[in-house]
Amino acid sequence: MKRLLFRKARLLDPETGLDSFGDLLVEGERIAVVGGDLSTAARGAEVVNADGLCLAPGLIDMRVQLREPGAEHMESIETAGRAAAAGGVTTMVALPNTDPPVDDISVVEFLARRAREVKLAKIHTYAAATKGLSGCDLTEMGLLAANGALGFTDGVQAVADALVMRRVLAYARTFDLLVLQHPEEPSLARAGEVSEGETATRLGLPAITPMAEVIMIERDLRLVEITGARYHIAHLSTAAGIDAVRRAKAQGLPVTCDTAPPYFALNETAIGDYRTFTKLSPPLRSEWDRRAVVEGLREGTIDAIASDHAPWDQDSKRLPFSSAAYGIVGLETLLPLSLELYHNGHLGLIELIRRLTNNPARILHLPVGRLTPGAPADLVLFDPDVSWRISTDAFRSKSKNAPFDGRPVRGRVCRTLVDGRTIFRLEV
Amino acid sequence: MTRSKVRSGALAGWRRSPYSPGLMQGTARYGAFRHRHLLGIEGLSPEEINHFLDLADGYVEVNRQAEKKRTLLRGRTIINCFFENSTRTRTSFEVAGKRLGGDVINMAVSASSMYKGETLIDTAMTLNAMHPDVLIVRHPESGAVQLLSEKLDCAVINAGDGSHEHPTQALLDALTIRRRKGRLGGLTVAICGDILHSRVARSNIALLNTVGARVRVVAPRTLLPAEIERLGVEVFHSMSDGLAGVDIVMMLRLQSERMHGAFIPSTREYFHFFGLDYDKLRAADSDALIMHPGPMNRGVEIGSEVADDIDRSLIRHQVEMGVAVRMACLEILTRDLGKGPPLP
Fold first, then answer.
1. CA–CA separation, B319 and B173 (whole Å)
2. Dmax of chain A from CA atoms?
């Protein structure tokens, strides 16, 4: 059995709160021993001199859009896998908005087979909550879950009809399944592209009130109250939305949520002169909302950070703002952008890593996101301090649509392992 | 070559306007307008705006002569590239270009390549390959003209992009006001109606604020964009309050074609509360003048008797000033093109 010894690493384990220097031994596909000086115990193992670098569970990115099947020219499972590896992501969960959508067992099986072939980061998928993402009829949720779907969502669109959503939640509760929602009242969002406010007014772009988020969340929370289903809100971005979640958690509802780096790294002024790389759904918000997202992460109301990876080719973004597609790629910038929260003093390193690993694993009921002996050796070795500039040209992702090109950041992935296999090593 | 020589070619025989272009004097030859394109009013300095108006003033006189043809743009190619239907603005630019001796080509793009799936940038590249000197663009999406300008090597004039800007309309409105009132600074202007969808309103707010006028907007709350007051305007929701004491009443067209769903219950109700008639106009200054960028919806935002009042309505003057302003724009953007690097 192959043995790999990380020497003198700063071990970060959000599961136990461990944050200390020591060794970690990997045997085969699993973590064998954590902590202490293992140089004698692990004689004969291949040695990685971590030399003070951080060794943490691999990141779990709970919101990634794969373009396979259907739009492999924008991203394939292989390119997404390489991007994930370079970003320190060892598990990613795909949205069902492919073509065909993930609303049938055969597509779940297809993804699992492709992931096995590609053998990079682990790939799981959510399945559609409604057939064809149409917002009408429920999918075979029980069967889909039995075949590996981790949760149910209509992806980049909300389940708009309250009665349908009630049934989705109630049916999900029957099998203790997770339901994820894109928090935006579609009738309010229908004619808009950016968040209402001075930026939208100056640019003359049709706007969506930020209240579209909390209106959808509040409705769903009442439905969660009557159904008791596990409910997760994706990419939370407004102060009002965060406030609603805070109250729901205090009330004891089974609700969790995540946000994505653009919502704490940028605000609406980044749109500048119609930069389509800043066109997101939900849209970039005001500085007030951005700060609320930081605060929500700090106090723990926001459980997780996901990349919200949305690859688009040039043709989808080199268009007038209103015609351009929504979303940015994020797998390769997830860690360095999140580390800004640590370097700016908002979150301790272990707390930050918890939101990138352990918390999403718990929400998704996955046995990863921890440095526990016996757990899969999904690991990321990173330097939390090194300064570098993001270069979208260097992205492994097939699409380069990110507004962070040239941004100076601190912290970089050095090595990524999945099941004990090194899937990425930084070439210096 | 000195400035006077350049200008004498274009404006031989122009009468000096009462508005002396004092701000131009002493400005370095290339310093009067710093930009390659005219994409919007936001970001222009008062000097630059006055430079346009001063030059246009001269062209008003040129246009009133029997012999209107000039040779300033001889050999220049100007393409009118309209991705949205327009008769008035397109014609105005066409007349302006032809009077200056340029070759003007009209392209109605919505009727051709866009339906064949060609992207905006492909269209731009195609046009670029024909070596135009000026491209005049109207597009239904905000920011589209700027996107085009980034891909072209000729001067671009924004003839209206979505709900963003329509700079030549604001310039012609300013010229109309300045010629009638003798100044812009210190005036109070009420812009009324569909502010939300109006690029005319945004350009006018930017221009009037830059030259020191006071701007009010009057509209029902459904037709006002969020935080409009941050653009430097006073907000009113009733015509009698909003028009009180104003010097200029600028009515906007209700842009039903840009509306998703109903923003007002009916045109009848809209006219009752926000349409301009003599009754509402009483609140304004007794010398207050009425403007409208056209085309008018008579009986919706403006009553016919007010629109056609020859003493108070400047609507036809606006159209006349439009040609002069567009001639000035074409002159400024093509001035000394291809004559080597700018002087220090």
1. 9
2. 68
Strands (E), chain B: 77-82, 103-108, 134-139, 155-161, 188-192, 214-218, 234-236, 248-251, 289-291
Nearest to A197 among B119, B164, B227 (CB): B227
**Are the beta carbons of B228 and A318 separated by less than 8 Å?**
no
Chain B: residue whose CA lies nearest to A190? B260
Cα maximum dimension of chain B:
61
**Chain B residues in contact with A320 (beta carbon < 8 A):** 120, 139, 141-144, 147, 162
The Cα–Cα gap between B21 and A150 comes to 71
B165 — contact with chain A (CB < 8 Å)? Answer: yes
What would the pLDDT profile of B2-22 be if each residue is shown by its tens digit? 444 444 334 433 444 444 444
Can you point out the beta strands (E) in A96-164?
A: 122-127, 149-152
Over the stretch A107-158, which tens digit does the pLDDT of each residue have?
A: 999 999 999 999 999 999 999 999 999 999 999 999 999 999 999 999 999 9
Contact at 8 Å (CB) between B14 and B137? no
The pLDDT tens digits of the residues spanning A349-369 come to 999 999 999 999 999 999 999
- B260 — contact with chain A (CB < 8 Å)? yes
The residue to which tokens 């009916």 are assigned: B266
Q: Is B235 part of the contact surface with chain A (CB cutoff 8 Å)?
A: no
Whether A78 and A118 have beta carbons less than 8 Å apart is answered as yes
State pLDDT tens for residues A248-263: 999 999 999 999 999 9
Asked whether this complex has an ipTM greater than 0.90, the answer is no
Q: Do B226 and A191 touch (CB under 8 A)?
A: no
User: Model's pTM, two decimal places?
Assistant: 0.90
Question: Per residue in A172-184, pLDDT tens?
Answer: 999 999 999 999 9
Instruction: Please state, in angstroms and rounded to a whole number, the distance separating the CA atoms of residues A340 and A374.
Output: 32
Model pLDDT, residue B126? 87
The set of residues, in sequence order, having a beta carbon less than 8 Å from that of B204 and lying 6+ positions away, is: B41, B169, B170, B173, B189, B191, B215, B250
Out of B121, B141, B143, closest to residue A318 by CB: B121
Question: If you write DSSP's letter for every residue of A348-417 in order, what string do you get?
Answer: -HHHHHHHHTHHHHHHHT-S-SS--TTSB--EEEEEEEEEEE--GGG-SSS----TTTT-EEEEEEEEEE
Test A320 with B142 for CB contact under 8 angstroms. yes
Asked if B215 reaches chain A (Cβ–Cβ under 8 Å), the answer is no
Residue A103 appears among annotated catalytic residues: no
CB contact under 8 A, B162 and A204: yes
Q: How many CB pairs under 8 A join A and B?
A: 75
